[in-house]
């Protein structure tokens, strides 16, 4: 069977649908074939993955279209009971979290504009004691790349003990919030946090750009290629591990550790007491208030250079320790070819 034959059978099987819905759904399936072919799959491979037309139509649960036509939201729910922990699995959803004004929990999401998204996406909630679990689910995993991201909005009580948010491709946004422990995981979605107070913040990403502004709490970030920007941080510790992402930091961290391969960095940390940077080729500008504090700076590099104020230290393949003042604050810098500039 060819793509043309399969789509013709599918169109006939969808005759009972509203004509507009039918046209949109057929366009989505045509795109599904186009994407598969662009990825090197054959028409037979795609048809085999979809299965018989009758089974495919049954799996779509077309009755959902009538329900969703009556409301602009697929889902809206309020929890009046006390919630202390929230765990979110957003998958491809764009997740927005803000503080609730009535100390209750409110959840809603916008329906996908595409027919295949309406038929494929759902949100489930389950409360276990004081823990709320929110999950975006997809009944037809074959079509995830055909589905537009949905907007999942959560108004949560402040002062949660724990907030965990995971997405695959969706963005995560948190504004004006208080939580003891924040844990964020994302594959390719961007992460933005503004005006957050926490004890501990952990972020794990793959290609996510990360932007923090006015964030209180100890920070731990691990990503592969995303850029990391942290401004107005208030906390004792900040640990960052990335491969090729650039890093910009401005805050009060006393303990800071950075591991990177090729990303460049600009760090403003005038309260620093212990700083460790390990890079291969990344160049770093460090604003550490050396004019008013004592430092012991250990520098190891193959071909990189170190400048402290107007002084240059470019001795390849040689370990150096430079003491400034009483040497109280410890700075360890390692690179293969990356340069360091300290002010």
Structure description:
The protein is of the alpha/beta class. Helix content is 17%, strand content 47%. Helix 1 (3-13) runs antiparallel to helix 2. The N and C termini lie far apart (69 Å). The model has no long low-confidence stretch (mean pLDDT 89).
Structural class: alpha/beta
| Number of individual domains | 3
Report the end-to-end length measured between terminal Cα atoms: 69 Å
In terms of DSSP E residues, the strand content is: over 45%
What is the H/E order? HHHHHEEEEHEEEEEEEEEEEEEEEEEEEE
Query: Which whole number gives the mean pLDDT?
Result: 89
* Rg value: 26 Å
Total number of β-strand segments? Answer: 24
Report the major sheet: 24 strands, mixed
**Total helical elements:** 6
Ranges where pLDDT stays below 50 over 5 or more residues in a row are none
> Which outline best applies?
elongated
Helix coverage percent: 10-25%
From the structure above, extract its key features.
elongated; 24 strands; alpha/beta; 17% helix; 343 residues
Layout of SSEs?
Blueprint: H1 3-13, H2 19-38, H3 43-50, H4 53-60, H5 64-69, E1 73-79, E2 85-89, E3 94-99, E4 105-110, H6 115-120, E5 121-128, E6 131-138, E7 151-156, E8 160-167, E9 172-186, E10 191-205, E11 210-222, E12 228-233, E13 237-241, E14 247-251, E15 255-259, E16 265-268, E17 274-278, E18 284-287, E19 295-301, E20 306-308, E21 311-313, E22 318-324, E23 329-335, E24 340-342
Parallel strand pairs: 2-6, 2-8, 3-7, 3-9, 8-9, 9-10, 10-11, 11-12, 11-13, 12-14, 13-15, 14-16, 15-17, 16-18, 17-23, 18-24, 19-23, 20-24
Antiparallel strand pairs: 1-4, 4-7, 5-6, 19-22, 20-21
Helix pairs in contact: 1-2
